[in-house]
Specification:
This protein is an alpha/beta fold and about 550 residues long. The chain has helices at about 10-20, 40-60, 75-85, 100-110, 120-130, 160-165, 200-210, 235-245, 260-265, 275-290, 310-320, 350-355, 450-455, 495-500, 530-535; strands at about 25-30, 40, 65-70, 90-95, 115, 135-140, 155, 180-185, 195-200, 220-225, 245-250, 270-275, 300, 320-330, 335-340, 360-365, 370, 385-390, 415-425, 430-435, 440, 445, 460-470, 475-485, 510-515. The structure holds adenosine-5'-diphosphate. Adenosine-5'-diphosphate binds near residues 186, 304, 329 and 334.
């Protein structure tokens, strides 16, 4: 027997309508290329999203057409999120930090018809324009006065583009399974792969991520997404904030600029911020040097790569903020797990608690999770056994966009292999050991590079650290530590290695340390181990000497 409830499609349009009826007056603060502090409301944003949809319709946008952005986090990008998806188009957020060949590949693969671009990126597009034959027009995200001089002829400012359509746009009634947005994974090997989100999956993800034991988003919050809107939809913050009626503070191009982030947090009374560990390490170090504390910050969502316990401790001790360590993937919209301490664990002794807090958290409602061995059989949730992490759920992609062949990450039962190796403990906390391509196998056993990196970053003289495997004739592979010392700090190889003595198993201790001034990062702000391994391979022979530590 079927139930007797009304049919109400779960669409992004419904999120927008809800916000218009219930919190149209809530403020959005943005840093943009043409305004250091722009202020508007959800009401303004959705009215202008309607103008944008009208302008795109005038150009002949058909349902499902892809509209690309190369843009930072600001109110115009938010208008694109809603204006494009709610009018039946697909918003393709391109990561401007990608290599040019990758931008060309994905824009052509997606068959983008229009590109909305931050003024700062226009010169890059100028040089690529001839390789993007499908692109019909380029719209610069500014007013007329801030469009850079260009030799391109098909360029118009965003403000001029939407100005002509000052009328009420009739939003179409969309099926909830309609595609809404497209995001490519950065693809360290092979071509980037497209993840095609839909209205329903996006709304369900927003519901689940706003829950108190997930990201905890409410109308009492002011959210600062430092994670870019081109990185897995800023972890869904632009949808969860609209659902809940939270204020949004958008840092524009200043994502990596500690003084601006600090000033935004303090002046706009931000209480929830989201971003990758590298951003927080930079901000925490800046605050330490400048002797500042972030007085309004309550929760910091840290994900994208493992959050070192030292970061969790510094936020708590110095700034009175608690870290919510989260794990996810572009393929997962992106949220899979969030770390919040179960009430039964709150009384744990401090050291024990810190150990649990380093884990990536428990599955949020909607995400099923298991670890499997080489034979595909599920492994024990005992916090020690590690295996390949598999997931399934309504906001996890079931195949890649326009894939040439079936994905080998998906199995017959609908599980998706994440490419991560993890443990799950009896309380349901998952901990990532490594990406499967980064695991270090020494004498037939695994060493977690993430554990070693977390330990290294706990040293007061270390700004950033990475551990990679180096071939070893006896043990197959051994860990090598690469360290960026903090500005002005001094640390020797011996001191660094001694730091591990009582913190990890003896045979896990790296064989050597290489000191560098900076580490290579990927387009999504993670340490790029592929590039790092290449760089290390060019070191003179003998530079990386190894000692047998077993
Ligand atoms: P990209 O590879 O393009 O940066 P994603 O952001 O989708 O794409 O990367 C997802 C991967 O990032 C995960 O599979 C995992 O390896 C890593 N990751 C994400 N969050 C965490 C975390 N909290 N701890 C450790 N690794 C993480």
């Amino acid at each position: 027997m079927l139930g007797l409830m009304m049919e109400a499609p779960l669409t992004i349009t419904a999120l927008m309508r809800h916000a218009l009826s219930n919190h149209a007056d809530v403020e959005i603060v943005s840093v943009t290329a043409d305004a250091p502090r722009h202020r508007c409301t959800y009401g303004d944003i959705f009215r202008r999203a309607g103008q944008l949809a009208g302008a795109l319709a005038d150009l002949g946008m058909r349902p499902g057409d892809r509209v690309a952005t190369l843009a930072w986090n600001d109110y115009r990008h938010l208008e694109l999120y809603y204006g494009v998806s709610c009018s039946g188009g697909v918003l393709h957020t391109i990561n401007p930090r990608l290599f040019e060949e990758q931008i060309v590949y994905i824009a052509n693969h997606a068959e983008d018809r229009w590109l909305f671009v931050d003024p700062a990126f226009l010169p890059r597009i100028e040089s690529l324009r001839d390789e993007l034959p499908r692109l019909e027009r380029i719209i610069v995200l500014s007013d007329d006065a801030h469009v850079p001089a260009t030799r391109l002829s098909d360029v118009v400012s965003y403000e001029a583009f939407i100005a002509g359509t000052d009328r009420d746009f009739r939003w179409p009634d969309l099926d909830e399974r309609t595609a809404s947005a497209l995001c490519y994974t950065s693809g360290t090997t092979g071509h980037p792969k497209g993840v095609l989100y839909e209205h329903r999956s996006t709304v369900l993800h927003a519901f689940a991520s706003a829950l108190p034991d997930a990201l905890h988003v409410s109308m009492r919050d002011a959210l600062l997404p430092v994670v870019p809107m081109f990185h897995a939809n800023a972890w869904g913050a632009p949808y969860a904030a609209v659902l809940a009626g939270a204020r949004l503070v958008m840092p524009g191009p200043k994502l990596g600029d500690a003084p601006t982030l600090y000033e935004l947090i303090e002046n706009e009374r931000v209480n929830v911020a989201l971003g990758v560990p590298t951003v927080w390490l930079g901000l925490l170090d800046w605050c330490e040097r400048e002797r500042r504390t972030m007085t309004s910050l309550e929760r910091v969502v840290v994900g994208g790569s493992a959050c070192p316990p030292a970061v969790i401790e510094r936020f708590r001790a110095v700034h009175g903020a608690s870290v919510r360590h989260a794990w996810g993937m572009t393929e997962m919209s992106p949220l899979g797990t969030v770390h919040v301490l179960r009430p039964s664990l709150e009384q744990l002794p401090e050291a024990e608690r810190a150990r649990v807090e380093a884990k990536q958290g428990r599955a949020i409602f909607g995400v099923e999770m298991k670890i499997v061995g080489d034979d595909g059989e599920a492994l024990a949730h005992d916090g020690r056994t590690f295996g390949v992490l598999k997931v399934r759920g309504p906001w996890i992609c079931r195949e890649y966009y326009k894939a040439e062949r079936a994905s080998d990450a998906h199995d017959a039962d609908g599980w998706f292999a994440t490419g991560d190796v993890a443990t799950i403990d009896a309380d349901g906390y998952m901990q990532i050991t490594d990406r499967s391509k980064d695991v270090i196998k020494s004498g037939g056993e695994w060493i977690s590079s993430i554990d070693l990196e977390n330990t290294a970053v706990g040293h007061p003289a270390v700004a950033e650290a990475a551990v990679v495997a180096v071939p070893d004739p006896k043990w197959q592979e051994r860990p090598l530590l690469v360290v960026v010392p903090k500005a002005g700090a001094e640390i020797s190889r011996e001191e660094m290695l001694a730091w591990f003595e009582d913190k990890v198993a003896k045979w896990w201790i790296p064989d050597d340390v290489v000191f560098v001034t900076e580490l290579p990062h990927t387009a999504t702000g993670k340490i790029s181990k592929v590039v790092l391994r290449e760089q290390l391979a060019t070191l003179p022979v003998g530079e990386v000497e190894r000692a047998d530590r077993r």
